[in-house]
Write a sequence for this structure.
């Protein structure tokens, strides 16, 4: 009987140790994922800031000091709002679009006569949850490589739909037709960040794709689980 109780005691200790080890391993994995998500999220700011400062420099070169000053003030407001966000925090699509309006206000100072931006989504989709600033690189890419690289007027169209238990978002824009079929340098930086953030956040339960869908037309596509705010 003593031997039996001893075996049970040892088995319980071993079980407790395994449980504690599993708990610590899960906590370590969670911390690693959190660090990865924060690093990926913070990559958006330097990339965005570099492109926006280029736009401000362009206005100054054109002699549009007043417009450059308005852009600097808009940039300050946008950065203040985005830097206060928790990188691990999801926001409603409506709130995400409100943040993008701040960014669009910056670029409208330079491209107001050539940029047409439209949003097409049912009202109920606006409550869907998305990672904060996940649309920023998509819209920035459309402006930089669409409006910034084209002489005429460029349309940027954002669409969002719910299909079953999935949220699907596309950002589509006009762009120059490349004779050699090559992408402009740097086009993949922001988009690659989106793909990596989605993979880290949803662990395979999301998808991202981007590329030409017709001559002179580019599309970025996100699909992720349907969740409500």
């Amino acid at each position: 009987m003593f031997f039996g109780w001893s075996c049970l005691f040892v088995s319980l200790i071993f079980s407790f140790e395994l449980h504690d080890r599993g708990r610590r391993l899960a906590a370590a994995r969670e911390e690693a994922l959190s660090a990865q998500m924060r690093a990926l999220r913070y990559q958006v700011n330097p990339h965005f800031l570099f492109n926006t400062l280029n736009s401000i420099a362009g206005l100054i070169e054109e002699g549009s000091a007043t417009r450059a000053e308005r852009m600097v003030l808009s940039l300050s407001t946008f950065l203040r709002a985005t830097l206060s966000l928790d990188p691990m925090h999801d926001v409603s699509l409506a709130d995400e679009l409100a943040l993008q309006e701040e960014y669009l206000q910056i670029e409208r100072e330079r491209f107001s006569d050539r940029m047409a931006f439209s949003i097409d989504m049912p009202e109920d989709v606006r409550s869907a949850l998305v990672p904060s600033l996940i649309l920023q690189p998509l819209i920035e890419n459309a402006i930089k490589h669409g409006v910034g690289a084209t002489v005429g007027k460029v349309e940027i169209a954002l669409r969002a739909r719910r299909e079953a238990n999935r949220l699907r978002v596309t950002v589509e824009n006009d762009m120059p037709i490349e004779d050699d079929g090559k992408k402009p340098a740097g086009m993949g930086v922001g988009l690659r960040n989106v793909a990596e953030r989605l993979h880290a956040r949803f662990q395979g339960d999301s998808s991202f794709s981007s590329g030409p869908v017709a001559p002179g037309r580019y599309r970025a596509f996100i699909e992720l689980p349907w969740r409500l705010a």
Observations:
- The chain has five helices and seven strands.
- The first strand starts at residue 90 and ends at 92.
